[in-house]
Design goal:
This protein is an alpha/beta fold. It is 58% helix and 7% strand. Strands 2, 3, 5, 6 and 7 form a 5-stranded mixed β-sheet that branches. The longest helix has 31 residues. The chain is elongated, with a radius of gyration of 40 Å. It starts with 7 loop residues before the first helix and ends with a helix.
């Protein structure tokens, strides 16, 4: 009692409150009484002294409620004062008219009753068991009292919820955890689940609402009434995360919806949690109570001895072990080794495995279950005794700790005062014997060291039973994965932050990475993953996160990978692909680290994950000439009469090929020129397939032009720009022009309707564009740009060879002739390809005014520069700025247009590299200039390719490529001065 004397000032403060509030009853003689009785526990004041010495909360509550203080001063609370909560609360709430008053009365009532229980605990007026039973009954009364008051007001506002038979519906509340087991601690959160019997709607109000909306609103109001912090404090911190689908789920579910969830998606940890689930405020005469109990029982208790759950329990046990080590919980009497949680786990393991057969195990209270376990020889009598005494000692310490400030803590204190409180409370207290009679228990505790010795002996005995549970303890894995329990809700932000710091995530990036990880975890309940999917995800994520966080630039990589995982959460096969094939996961991480483009492609089209299984094909792409035959073989496996599936197949083939090309690019297998070759010939193969599909569909309706021989189409697709120059990039669109030979006034034959050949080819062109643009589940094939056709957007989608030649020779602008330099046939019969090449050659080699050509080219370049470039000296836009790609392309085009009239052979090539080579060959430019231009062009394109892979714009720091830019500008000045 020595430490109690130091709280005499608090007694004086309370006396001043009494004298000030009730001068007619109390005067300054109180101070004399305090001095005389403060250390005598048989007196009222001596008992008050112990109460305030053990709990700051008690002293503060008395300060706030003087009338209650006066009552306790005259007669300190005893255990018989701690009962009939529901009846006494109902009397208080009968006079409440508003929600504001409700909030206040609930909080004041709770504070008064908690003070009484703290006093009884401090003075050993009640056993440990009686205290946590009364704490649970108090919580239940407050929850149900608040529900009933709010329910009545909700019915006035929204009407009374009814079922199909016209029976009024009530909100049923499952109390989980310690509340469900009548084992609530002094400052516990409460875990609740809301449910109601059936769908329906309200009656009796101006507008009906459906039952789901009614009970959701009621539930929200109830949570606010309990959880909201006001000037009077709070009633209980309320946690709803144990409900189906967690935070993402509906706040209240019907019985049927709840049953469906637990049947289809209920996980082992939810079975474990539901063992403690108890319907609060249950009335024996309410038939819905039996319905709800019968609905939940089969989920929790299987009718056979349930050995299938053993692996899940073993994993839970390993999780507990890991958390103890990870969080260094040595001073936590609940979560630490040998703590309260391990005792609860021991009991609930046997309930899950054998509860279906052993009815005696189908109850909520841990202390009632221990003797049942020993009767069934599941634990020995000695172990039963050890676990009981340890549990009561730990619960005593826990409640004393929490009563100090009405705060939820299980951490042993590091300050001397709170340690003295624990020493005083745990040296001697009362608990029940086997007949539930109060008996005094003493421990050899006289200082902190002796307290720890007693505590550690209890923990040792608990741990001994825990470690022998579900098989022998395996060797500890000293190199265990820090992310093993990431998906668990109790893996908190501070732990996550610690792991990020250990992995070297820069401080400036830590908040963003943490937010993305929490977002991923918090949104998981929204997905219908299923039991199997969740198990696979639990295996996959630790390995995935460990690899990602050990990757340079992990803050950029992590969101890419998590986005992919989110896209496949409901597709367990893909989760298994990554979980069961470590090399595929590693390959995915490597590719996504270097390419935002690949990450986006895989996220958009998860079927591409299959490609990761074949490491050989990723590192050894086919020769670029083989895409057409590969595509043909691929399409043979698809139903030819299902257009959408056929087009989907084209898209999937393209995406898979793109992934392989990008992977080979990233892995250094393909140089930039070869990458463009692959991308270009892939596009050509797809163009061929699209034209053939469009031809087939148009021919079914209209037949084919009558002038065609067997197998002929007389239709040519010309590629311009990057496609024409064999320089396609990952995100390039296709610049196309369609040419055909209508052969006079011919018509179609063999179809349902006859049209002239010109109309046939125009419809074919429209169909081709439509197929390219069709947006299916696999996206679109390519963006197609037809503006380079004669007369641009004003012209027809296709034109005859004659019309095309006439336009190019007589009407085309200089910029259109520049575009023609980078054109070539990409689909069509050889004779048509030859005819196009002849037209192209004739146009490009036609005589022209050199001065006018220079002026036109310079004006077009200046116009593009003004419209497209950003003019930022600190940055260099590789495509559009001076000295960049566009300047090099204009130089190549100018050289062809300026010198082909004298040297017709210069029209041969459409790609810039070979244009520069032939220019040097014919002495138009020097070999040195040719080599330098080619190298500049390849280097700039290479950089653009890799910026594309990273999902970045074609912009670099202004200090880069200075020499290349200067050289290109020098050539430009030399040509156009």
């Amino acid at each position: 009692m020595s430490f109690v004397a130091q709280f005499v000032d608090k007694l004086h403060s309370l006396a001043e409150v009494l004298i000030h509030s009730f001068p007619e009853k109390f005067d300054s003689t109180l101070f004399e009484q305090i001095e005389q009785q403060k250390t005598d526990p048989t007196t009222n004041i001596g008992q008050m002294a112990v109460a305030v010495a053990m709990s700051d909360f008690v002293a503060e509550a008395w300060q706030k409620q003087p009338a209650f203080l006066a009552k306790c001063w005259e007669k300190p609370p005893h255990f018989e004062d701690c009962d009939q909560y529901a009846k006494r609360l109902d009397e208080v709430l009968q006079h409440v008219q508003t929600e504001e008053q409700l909030y206040r009365e609930l909080r004041l009532f709770r504070a008064r009753e908690m003070v009484k229980l703290s006093v009884c605990q401090s003075l050993n007026f009640a056993t440990v068991e009686q205290v946590f039973i009364r704490l649970s009954q108090l919580a239940e009364s407050l929850i149900i009292g608040a529900r009933d008051w709010l329910y009545a007001r909700a019915c006035e506002e929204m009407g009374t919820p009814m079922d199909a038979q016209g029976n009024a519906q009530q909100l049923y509340i499952l109390g989980m955890g310690k509340l469900g087991g009548f084992e609530l601690n002094f400052s516990s959160d409460i875990d609740l689940i809301f449910t109601y019997p059936s769908q329906g709607e309200t009656v009796g109000a101006r507008r009906s609402v459906d039952n789901a909306k009614f009970f959701t609103r009621l539930g929200q109001r109830l949570i606010n009434a309990l959880d909201q912090y006001t000037a009077d404090g709070f009633v209980y911190r309320t946690d709803m995360r144990l409900r189906p689908f967690g935070d993402s789920g509906a706040l209240a579910l019907s019985f049927n919806a709840m049953e469906q969830y637990y049947q289809d998606q209920g996980r082992d940890w939810e079975r474990y949690a539901m063992i403690k689930g108890r319907i609060l405020g249950a009335q024996a005469t309410d038939p819905n109570i039996t319905v709800l109990q019968n609905l939940l029982r089969p989920f929790v208790y299987r009718r056979y001895i349930d050995f299938s759950v053993i692996q899940a329990l073993r994993e839970m046990k390993q999780k507990i072990e890991r958390e103890v080590r990870r969080r260094n919980l040595t001073d936590n009497i609940k979560l630490g080794a040998g703590g309260i949680r391990e005792i609860e786990f021991i009991v609930q393991v046997f309930q899950l495995i054998r509860g279906g057969r052993e009815i005696a195990l189908q109850q909520h209270e841990l202390l009632n279950l221990l003797p049942e376990l020993s009767k069934l020889n599941l634990i020995s009598i000695e172990q039963e005794s050890d676990l009981r005494h340890a549990y009561l000692f730990l619960r005593r310490a826990e409640n004393v700790l929490q009563a100090i400030k009405d705060q939820q803590t299980q951490q042993l204190p590091d300050n001397e005062l709170d340690r003295q409180r624990l020493i005083f409370a745990c040296a001697e207290f009362t608990q029940w014997d086997a007949q539930q009679e109060s008996v005094s228990v003493s421990y050899p505790i006289h200082d902190w060291a002796s307290f720890l010795a007693v505590l550690q002996e209890h923990q040792r005995k608990v741990r001994s039973v825990f470690q022998s549970l579900i098989g022998d303890e395996q060797e500890e894995n000293t190199s265990e994965n820090a992310w093993e329990d990431f998906l668990e809700a109790d893996f908190d932000e501070q732990e996550l932050l610690g792991i990020l710091q250990q992995n070297g995530v820069p401080e400036a990036e830590q908040d963003a990475v943490l937010d993305r990880l929490l977002q991923f975890r918090n949104e998981l309940p929204r997905y219908a993953i299923g039991v199997r999917g969740r198990a696979v995800l639990n295996r996959l994520m630790p390995n995935l996160l460990e690899q990602v966080l050990h990757t340079p630039n992990s803050p950029v990589l992590l969101p890419r990978i998590l986005t992919i995982i989110e896209k496949i959460l409901t597709r367990t096969t893909y989760l298994e692909l990554l979980a069961e094939n470590p090399q595929a996961l590693t390959q995915l991480i490597e590719l996504c680290a270097q390419s935002k483009f690949i990450a986006e492609q895989v996220a958009r089209h998860p079927i591409l994950l299959d490609e990761l299984l074949d490491q050989k094909s990723l590192r050894n792409p086919p020769h670029f000439t083989e895409y057409a035959s590969e595509l043909q073989q691929y399409l043979l496996r698809l139903p030819q009469d299902d257009e959408e599936q056929f087009i989907d197949g084209l898209r999937q083939f393209k995406h898979a090929a793109l992934l392989r090309i990008a992977a080979a690019d990233i892995l250094g297998v393909l140089p930039v020129m070869k990458v463009s070759d692959h991308l270009t010939y892939l596009a050509e193969a797809i163009i061929g397939a699209v034209v053939n599909l469009a031809w087939q569909q148009i021919a079914v309706r209209f037949g084919v032009p009558e002038h065609l021989a067997e197998g002929e189409k007389n239709f040519l697709v010309v590629g311009y720009g990057k496609l024409g120059g064999i320089e396609l990039g990952y995100k390039s669109d296709l610049d196309l022009v369609f040419l055909y030979d209508p052969a006079g006034n011919s018509q179609t034959v063999g179809g349902k309707k006859v049209i002239d050949s010109n109309q046939f080819y125009l419809r074919l062109a429209q169909k081709i564009v439509s197929i390219f643009s069709m947006n299916t589940s696999a996206g679109i094939l390519y963006d197609v740009d037809m503006r380079l056709r004669p007369s641009g957007d004003a012209g027809l989608l296709g034109c005859s060879f004659t019309a095309f030649e006439n336009y190019q020779l007589n009407e085309a602008w200089t910029w259109e002739k520049q575009a023609l330099v980078r054109s070539r046939a990409v689909f069509g019969e050889q004779k048509l390809r030859d005819e196009f090449e002849t037209i192209r050659h004739n146009v490009l080699s036609a005589p022209r005014d050199l001065v006018q050509l220079k002026q036109d080219v310079c004006e077009m370049r200046e116009k593009m520069y003004e419209h497209l470039a950003k003019h930022d000296d600190a940055q260099f836009n590789i495509k559009t700025d001076q000295g960049g790609i566009t300047d090099i392309e204009f130089i190549a085009q100018y050289l062809v247009l300026a010198h082909s009239p004298q040297q017709p052979a210069l029209t041969r090539w459409s790609d810039n590299v070979r244009i520069f080579e032939i220019m040097a060959e014919y002495g138009v430019i020097s070999d040195a200039d040719s080599e330098r231009l080619k190298q500049c062009y390849v280097d700039l394109r290479n950089r653009i390719h890799h910026l594309n892979l990273l999902g970045l714009p074609s912009v670099v720091d202004g200090s880069e490529f200075c020499a290349e830019r200067a050289f290109v500008r020098e050539i430009w000045a030399r040509l156009f001065r």
